[in-house]
Specification:
Helix content: 40-55%
Strand order of the largest sheet: 2-3-1-6-8-7
Low-confidence stretches: 150-162
Distance between the termini: 32 Å
Radius of gyration: 15 Å
CATH topology: Alpha-Beta Plaits
CATH class: Alpha Beta
Order of helices and strands: HEHHEEHEEEHEE
CATH superfamily: Reverse transcriptase/Diguanylate cyclase domain
Number of helices: 5
CATH architecture: 2-Layer Sandwich
Mean pLDDT: 87
Strand content: 25-35%
Number of domains: 1
Shape: globular
Length: 167
């Protein structure tokens, strides 16, 4: 399977195959879509090397957070995706992940900060228990968080989906 050279995470195609296997084998699986907030400002004001440092750190944090319970991938740019085998306490897990992604990244003697909008979908709660449906539901939940604006965003939950703001 192909890996993203910057993060070491699976690329989209590799992640899709791995996620399909996990979803077939684990009826309590959940899919998360993560989009970094404030990344463009880091990239534009501090340079692409700083942006790369944030992307690499995010990849390491996601892989660590998943552990043996899931697999993270990089969709491209500052967008990431995760599938976890067991997502029964999704709201608490999202809060932990949000806190982890909010931690500043050390870079050339300074600290770079970004937030993250996170959307999640539990596969079993969807009408169509597939990776594609879960990615669509997680993406919609993530954009629901982003739609609340940078300040005043609140975690959102609905049947089969959850979202968190880590800004």
């Amino acid at each position: 399977m192909r890996r993203d050279p910057l993060t070491g995470l699976l690329t989209r195609d590799g992640w899709n195959r791995a996620a399909d296997r996990i979803i077939r084998r684990h009826d309590r699986a959940a899919v998360l879509i993560i989009d970094l907030d404030g990344f463009k400002m880091v990239n534009d004001t501090c340079g692409h090397a700083a942006g790369d440092a944030v992307i690499a750190a995010t990849g390491q944090r996601l892989a660590s957070w998943c552990g043996e319970n899931g697999i993270a991938g990089r969709l491209g740019g500052d967008e990431f995706v995760v599938v976890v085998r067991d997502g029964p306490r999704l709201a608490a897990a999202l809060a932990d992940l949000g806190a982890l992604l909010r931690e500043p990244v050390d870079y050339r003697g300074g600290r770079l900060s970004v937030g993250a909008s996170i959307g999640a979908a539990q596969v079993a709660d969807l009408d169509s228990p597939t990776r594609e449906a879960a990615m669509g539901a997680a993406d919609a939940a993530m954009y629901q968080v982003k739609g609340h604006g940078r300040s005043g965003r609140r975690p959102v939950a609905s049947e089969g989906t959850a979202a968190a703001d880590a800004s």
